[in-house]
Amino acid sequence: MNGGELVMTLTEANGGTRLSSTRYVHYGTISAMIRTGKWAGVVTAFITMSDAKDEIDWEWPGAQVTEAQTNYFWLAKANYSATQGTTVKDLSDTYVNYHNYTIDWQEDELNWLIDGNVVRTLKKADTLSATVPGRYEYPTTPARIQLSGMINWQDPDYVTAGHFSAIVSEVTVKCAPLTGVANSSAMTSYVYAANDSTGVPTVQVTNHSTMLGGAVSGVRVGQSFWFGLSVGMLCAVAGVFSTIV
User: Fold this and answer.
1) Which residue, of 127, 155, 177, is where some domain finishes?
2) Residue numbers of the domain that contains 123
3) Beta bridge partners of 203
4) Are 87 and 105 within one domain?
5) Is the same domain home to 139 and 230?
6) Which residues does residue 204 pair with via DSSP β-bridges, in sequence order?
7) Predicted model pTM
8) Is 137 a catalytic residue?
9) Which of 5, 12, 59, 170 is an active site residue?
10) Active-site residue, 107 included
11) Per-residue pLDDT of the chain (245 residues; tens, 9 = 90+)
12) Where do the H-state alpha helices sit in 98-232?
């Protein structure tokens, strides 16, 4: 912490900083006010990452301080036949200036925004698999929010300061409302259930405890369950979580 800002440092000794939320988001709008790094080989990242390796990315590549990159992955699958990543150009210096970067992740559409302006849209309908009928390769599993700074150790800035850095002033999370769930206000967690017919893990919302030893009490565990069973704490239902650091 420095003057109300969170400074994520990267040193040769510690290898970097990664901040991860303890709660999971299953659709919602996540925004972060960030000043990125500016050094070759140092990538600043603001992402969502699920236990099943669904991933939605904002990344800032090294010394390119007028660019930002978007990307997504479905169950850790990289699409090598068609690009999933895009580059946004002509930004005002991302090292000098704060920008508000947003991941607006909804059940049928994903938008990336900068300072309130949509710069990329991905529709779930456009992710239909070319090889598996009826399968949409779109992030659908509950995810944690992560921020990180992931390298010429002789760079003058590093020699002077002893670290590379990126700075975060605010993170805001607005969870999407649960739909089609009875007594949704009592739900506290989710579990991975059996995969659907296309091999995609299904997610069930529960009121099970997320405490160690009590998380899966009374829940059947079998080989048809993805990962046996995985339990995570939900983000406050349809609520807003805001951290100003």
Assistant:
1) 177
2) 6-177
3) 192
4) yes
5) no
6) 191
7) 0.80
8) no
9) 59
10) no
11) 456 777 766 666 666 677 889 889 999 999 999 999 887 777 888 999 999 999 999 999 878 999 999 999 999 987 666 668 899 999 999 999 999 999 999 999 999 999 999 999 999 999 999 899 999 999 999 999 998 865 443 444 433 444 456 788 899 999 998 877 777 777 788 888 889 999 898 888 888 777 766 544 433 332 222 333 344 556 643 333 333 33
12) 156-161
Residues 42 and 146 in one domain: yes
Q: What letter represents residue 235's amino acid?
A: C
Question: One of 5, 12, 55, 170 is an active-site residue; which one?
Answer: 55
Q: Give the DSSP letter of residue 127.
A: G
Q: Does 157 lie in the same domain as 80?
A: yes
How many folded domains does the chain comprise?
2
E strands, 94-227, are 99-105, 109-114, 117-123, 143-149, 164-175, 189-195, 201-206
Identify residue 67 by its one-letter amino acid code. Answer: E
Q: Is residue 242 part of a domain?
A: no
Answer whether residue 244 is part of any domain: no
